[in-house]
Specification:
Blueprint (H helix, E strand, L loop, with lengths): L4 H4 L4 H5 L2 E5 L9 E7 L3 E7 L2 H20 L8 E6 L4 E6 L4 E2 H7 L3 H19 L5 H4 L4 H15 L6 H9 L8 E3 L8 E4 L2 E5 L6 E3 L1 H9 L6 H11 L6 H10 L5
Antiparallel strand pairs: 1-2, 2-3, 3-5, 4-5, 6-8, 7-10, 8-9
Helix pairs in contact: 5-9, 5-10, 7-8, 9-11
Bound molecules: adenosine-5'-triphosphate (ATP) and magnesium ion.
């Protein structure tokens, strides 16, 4: 889609953000969408486009969550929702472009190990602020998050290609971790989905998984790329401070549940 994306952008965009002067693209595109950066006479914007049905549903969910959180929580560092459109072939989410680069890129670019430690510490600190934010009341009245995820995992196993298998899913259903209080979670809190600016993790992006849910899922995905490195893990928990997950909990969420999404 990349070469044609400009032609395919909805006509309604320019009245909102001004004349598009140039386009650029992120270093890495995700699996479920194409992202285009739009530079206009008013500023910098992002259009995220999806074409497969399932991914269009996720994009709509991201749009709704972003708009609702923009309206209820000004302290939360996420992009500003601008609009959402659907046509026969694609769905489009238009939002503000936030400064920074994904934490994965910042880690690769870090000059010293100490710089990496500071980045990961700021990731923990930022995730703490997200987990401490109060959620809209209706979100708290939903079914238990893990039970919902296990139902979605069953559906995904039956209908889509996923990495997990039936045996793993049965074991996840039989060996649920102990109950802990639910809170606002990101739902896909990897180092690809937070932006670093001025050497600090500042902004959460890719918000379709945001829910009132189990914070251990965020922690497991946050630490998945460095959990074997004690100094980085300690730096993360030094910033996060709310809880630490056991090896079993890490395996349950990262090696288990995540295999179905
Ligand atoms: N609002 C934004 N401001 C700045 N950069 C952004 C913004 N939204 C997305 N990006 C850039 O685009 C990349 C892809 O965006 P995003 O993570 O939302 O989509 P995705 O990874 O395709 O989604 P998915 O994980 O659902 O496949 C990000 O890594 C980031 O570099
Ligand atoms: Mg992403």
């Amino acid at each position: 889609m990349k070469e044609n994306i400009h032609k395919a952008l909805p006509k309604q965009i320019e009245p909102i953000i001004g004349n598009v002067q140039s386009l650029s693209y992120p270093t890495r595109q995700g699996a479920t969408s194409e992202v285009v950066f739009l530079h206009t006479d008013h500023g910098k914007y992002v259009c995220k486009c999806s074409s497969l049905t399932n991914y269009r549903i996720w994009l709509l969910k991201e749009a709704k969550v972003m708009e609702e959180l923009n309206n209820t929580n000004s302290d939360l560092s996420i992009p500003t929702f601008l609009n959402f459109w659907e046509d026969d072939d694609n769905s489009y989410l238009l939002m503000s472009r936030e400064p920074g680069i994904p934490l994965r890129e910042a880690m690769l670019a870090a000059k010293t190990y100490e710089d990496k430690v500071l980045l990961i510490h700021s990731f923990g600190t930022k995730l703490k602020t997200l987990h401490e934010i109060s959620v809209p009341l209706e979100w708290m009245q939903q079914e238990n998050w893990l039970d919902m995820q296990l139902k979605k995992a069953t559906y995904n196993l039956q209908n889509y290609e996923v990495d997990g298998n039936r045996q793993l899913l049965n074991s996840l259903k039989e060996n649920k971790p102990r109950d802990i209080p639910q809170m606002l979670i990101h739902g896909d809190c990897t180092i690809d989905n937070v932006l670093v600016s001025d050497n600090q993790v500042e902004t959460f992006i890719d918000l379709s998984g945001v829910s009132f849910g189990d914070p251990r899922y965020d922690v497991a995905l946050a630490i998945r790329s460095f959990h074997y490195d004690k100094a980085l893990l300690n730096a993360f928990y030094g910033g996060y401070t709310l809880l630490q997950i056991s090896e079993e909990e890490f395996d349950y969420f990262d090696g288990g549940l995540y295999e179905f999404f």
